[in-house]
Amino acid sequence: MFNKKTVRDYDFRGKRVLVRVDFNVPIKAGKVSDDTRIQAALPTIRYLLDQGAAIILCSHLGRPKGKPEAEFSLRPVAAHLSGLVGRPVGFVESCIGPEAKAAAARMRAGDVLLLENTRFYKEEEKNDPAFSSELASLAEVFVNDAFGSAHRAHASTEGVAHHLPAVAGFLMEQELAYLGKALAISERPFVAILGGAKISDKIGVVESLAARADRLLIGGGMANTFLAAQGLAMGDSLVEAESVEKAKGLLQRAGERLLLPTDVVIGDKFEAGAGRQVVAVNAIPAGWRAMDIGPQTVEAFTRAVKGAKLIVWNGPMGVFEFPAFAGGTQAVAQAVADSGATSVIGGGDSVAAVKQAGLADRITHISTGGGASLEFLEGRTLPGVAALQDK
Ligand code: ADP
Ligand code: MG
Questions:
Q1: For ligand 1, what atom is nearest to the CA of residue 351?
Q2: CB of 201 within 8 A of CB of 374?
């Protein structure tokens, strides 16, 4: 399945290595407030250091508009990473040009340097070949460990790979190995669980999983549009009118494999302290909105998950940020953890929900890449992966 060269296939001794990582981390008051993504890159960084390489790290952070913006600087990440790897991490305020070149040229085996945010250059998102070539000129080999950015054909994820020997890091390899299992449906029954706010965000993956899964459980805001497609009155629930026709088609194609909520927890406002009731899906009063799956649905979903050998989950079952509406998501997380199946969870909010439930270590694989994991599960080629050297 995974036919790309990895860091194990290259001799890094004495080499300068450009490593694309995903350090797109939240920063509050000049400090990294959640370092999950930095932690995820450590196996590759430590391996390269052990191999005697000098490491030049690059990443994007946030969405600056092609020019430097102080709030999106990676400088705080250099300090944080330094603490994690127990050695100094140099930082330059550029990705290309004389300063970056000089800093790279000074490097010795064991040195670590972090470049400034790649998105401070408009050439990054345009995948500009001259920019890619300049970036590549800093190093002798390229390692891509930024799975979360692999669905974008940008200079630092794709373009640069055309100028250097290019191999996958461990995180990239691990992500593709587990998501590859889900895509290939290596084990059955294969149960897909989808939720979150909207169908329109995820229509490709919904279509793909609807065609392939033995069971497709749909909860969260996404389920509302399916329920509306069945003609139910959804009150003030989040419903995407423009996706109702798509939902009808999916319902028809998936037939009995698709499970929808039969009861929901409703609230009278979109607030943590909203009035709360459990009702059947055909009994949502006007002025109320579906905010979680109900207990009967939890039971049905739990039963479906029990027999699974392979589970993919994306999207919470309700507004889990409000404790009164987090029960469905937590119960499904528990069922997935207890199932004994190979379980793969992707999506920023889904991962947050599983962590909040204290069950992260009982999930086989937690994907760091939301958009990338969805595109991969749709069966689309990820440009950042395609550009790596074949085995
Ligand atoms: P992920 O980040 O895991 O891909 P999404 O971003 O698609 O997930 O969706 C997560 C969001 O969906 C959460 O903020 C959650 O509050 C919201 N959500 C889930 N169920 C509902 C619902 N019934 N009504 C409104 N929002 C919902
Ligand atoms: Mg999200």
A1: 3
A2: no
DSSP 200: G
- Contact call for residues 308 and 191 (beta carbons, < 8 A): yes
- Which pLDDT belongs to residue 1? 55
Residues with CB under 5 A from ligand 2 (ion): 348-349
pLDDT digits (tens, 9 = 90+) for 247-273: 999 999 999 999 999 999 999 999 999
Confidence of residue 292 (pLDDT cuts 50, 70, 90): very high
Kindly list the protein residues whose Cβ atom lies closer than 6 A to any atom of ligand 1: 195-197, 201, 220-221, 238, 290-291, 314-316, 318-319, 321, 347-350, 370
Does residue 219 sit in the same domain as residue 305?
A: yes
- With a cut of 90, say whether residue 30 has pLDDT above it: yes
Domain total for the chain? 2
244-254 and 220-229 helices, crossing angle to 10°? 90
Do 139 and 272 lie in a common domain? no
pTM above 0.90, yes or no: no
pLDDT digits (tens, 9 = 90+) for 357-366: 999 999 999 9
Q: Which of 121, 148, 173 is the last residue of a domain?
A: 173
Check which CATH number belongs to the domain holding 359 and give it: 3.40.50.1260
74 CB-near residues (< 8 Å, 6+ apart): 23, 59, 61, 91, 114, 115, 116, 117
Last residue of a domain, one of 173, 204, 220: 173
Closest ligand to Cα 199 = 1
How many Å lie between the centroid of ligand 1 and the Cα of residue 280?
Answer: 21
